[in-house]
Design goal:
Blueprint lengths: L20 E3 L2 E4 L9 H11 L5 E9 L4 E9 L4 E6 L2 E6 L10 H10 L5 E4 L8 H5 L4 E6 L2 H13 L5 E5 L11 E6 L9 H7 E12 L2 H14 L4 E11 L5 E9 L1
Parallel strand pairs: 2-3, 7-8, 7-10, 8-9, 10-11
Antiparallel strand pairs: 1-2, 3-4, 5-6, 11-13, 12-13
The protein binds S-adenosylmethionine.
Length: 262
């Protein structure tokens, strides 16, 4: 059995994408150009095979500062809003208005488990809150910033849904957020350009951890860059642990750099 592909004839079946993302009841699939003429049949096959899915969209890529997906609905209900359950929390979101990746679920659980009761945490690029909300359940407080006003609107709704009160949401550029407040832990989930904000994170780190997510092909070079930048800001890097999260392209992968700042 190979799932929805079983509904297609041999020869075509093996070439169709095996994997796709699921957010709530929405399936998001990357379909190579050659299959676009049969996209409606692909959508119907997915809905027939996976009974909990209600919408199928083609992913035409993530663009812009707000990292929003360009989506085309190919089958099912004509909507892009849904509810995702993850790590005992519920997130309402619109996959066409905000960024959300279900692939980081384990990472978000890990961040919550690492956080201590007395910590003040800054989720610099918070989206609809999948790091902020579980972390707030253990932290003293979470400050959460995002430049996308739809993300902050959903974060506020998700705080109520999950009965979490110790999050301070800020809509705007992370560089302008929370004055000169200092933090014990900073989460930087903006993988394409997190390093551009590293100086700002260093300035606000009271001493503690910075978790920097980065898509790259050469993690040692990123570690060197991190050390050089910290040196320029007269900050001490006590250690860096590198974790590979998943592949991104033929050459690049998503890594988390856990940076201990003295
Ligand atoms: C990769 S998404 C991560 C969202 C969330 N942390 C998650 O795991 O779903 C990056 C987020 O950073 C936001 N963003 C981009 N540039 C920003 C900036 N200069 N200041 C604050 N947020 C920004 C985007 O709107 C987007 O929601």
């Amino acid at each position: 059995m190979s799932g929805y592909r079983d509904l297609f004839p041999e020869g075509l079946r093996e070439r169709l994408p095996r994997a796709f993302d699921v957010v709530g009841d929405i399936c998001i699939i990357k379909l190579p150009e050659e299959f676009l003429p049969i996209r409606k049949s692909v959508g119907s096959a997915i809905l027939k095979t996976y009974k909990h899915m209600r919408v199928v969209c083609i992913d035409r890529g993530v663009t812009g500062d707000q990292r929003v997906r360009n989506l085309e609905i190919i089958a099912g209900e004509r909507r892009t809003d849904t509810e995702q359950r993850e790590n005992g929390c519920i997130y309402r979101l619109d996959v066409a208005q905000v960024y959300f990746s279900p692939r980081l679920s384990g990472e978000r659980a890990l961040m919550a488990s690492l956080t201590g009761r007395s910590e003040s945490v800054w989720d610099m690029f918070c989206g609809v809150g999948p790091f902020s909300i579980p972390v707030a359940k253990t932290a003293r407080e979470v400050c959460a910033s995002d430049i996308n006003e739809n993300a902050i609107r959903y974060l506020k709704e998700n705080m109520k849904l999950n009965r979490v009160k110790n999050i301070d949401p800020f809509c705007g550029d992370a560089r302008d957020a929370f004055g000169d407040k200092k933090f014990d832990r900073i989460i930087m989930n903006l993988p394409h350009c997190s390093l551009d904000f590293f100086d700002c994170a260093l300035e606000r780190c009271a001493g503690g951890m910075i978790h920097l997510y980065r898509i790259c092909r050469d993690p040692p070079a990123v570690c060197e860059e991190i050390r050089n930048r910290a040196h320029e800001e007269n900050r001490v890097v006590e250690g860096i642990d590198v974790r590979k999260l998943h592949g991104y392209s033929v050459t690049d992968s998503l890594f988390c750099f856990d940076i201990r700042i003295g």
